[in-house]
């Protein structure tokens, strides 16, 4: 089974990495400590002329391996390279390509234009197509997008096409899933150590499973459809160490808003964001997905959480494919490292008009609201609704403004929202 193959041995880099983190208590006067790593990403110098070669003796100390981060290791494996550094450009073998009804038709059009009207996709079992935006509408042009996906999937015999046919009743569609990022996880398409690309900026959500996941454009997706490969630049990594017991009134959304508030919406531009620490280890998979989902709001290329027993337990029964998790080396080089004592963090909000316009929730208690929406790929999971229910119950009052609760997927609606029906 996949789960038995995935468990790291006692001598794995995962165990060594946890030991080498050197977590310590934080001073009570500081909620966050930010420090630059001593190791900085080195810049390669390429000479235009080959220097004169002097005679040298053979090395006697053996090969020297430079430590790599999780992101670097995943891309090295996917590009069949023994070593990668930030800034390297490599052709990467893609494990999963996801597209939906917004970008799917455009990606398909590019694929047919460049590879031919009768061309076949590189692997019909590695393409996941999920209608999730232009649905439940009477707009014929919007419906046409889903029609194009359906025709293409029939033509190419795509294995994982989660179709929707009855637009009048979502419950009448046995294959319909919902929001693509949550559905990818629920259907077992997210696996540690793999490369998952999707035509949506929040594809980075899947990094919660210890894989490289990022959003791409239609042109890139069209190329991947035909070749299964994509040229990627290896990003440097920012490391976020979060320790301390998670207060019961906090969610992963508070953690990522704290981070974005510290580094700004441009602070992680084309960088990997790696999340570690005892707080992260205590999060379930839904909360880890929230954490990784919003790295793009900081400009990040991808977010990633080390796979552990929580990850492997979640994947049991969801995938039968073997997978191989990877972990950052103890001697890996990070561009920057940020440390947080989560036990001292308060609930946060992002005020208009930017995710980094962070404020304490208690500072906004007098702000009047007209409408409430709880849902989407960030806030439409089971844990989000349970958290909202606790707030409603604790208040002892009835809701006074229009409030919309929208489960991210049909599975959340049936299995979690209505367990007794």
Automatic annotation (TrEMBL):
Superkingdom of the organism of origin = Eukaryota
Give one GO term, molecular function aspect. iron-sulfur cluster binding
Recorded hits in InterPro entries, A to Z, give: Acnase/IPM_dHydase_lsu_aba_1/3, Acoase/IPM_deHydtase_lsu_aba, Aconitase_4Fe-4S_dom, IPM_dehydratase_rel_enz
Q: What keyword terms does UniProt attach to this protein?
A: Iron, Iron-sulfur, Lyase, Metal-binding
Q: What's this protein's name?
A: Aconitase/3-isopropylmalate dehydratase large subunit alpha/beta/alpha domain-containing protein
> What biological-process terms (Gene Ontology) are attached?
oxoacid metabolic process
Q: Could you tell me which residue ranges the Aconitase/3-isopropylmalate dehydratase large subunit alpha/beta/alpha domain spans?
A: 85-359
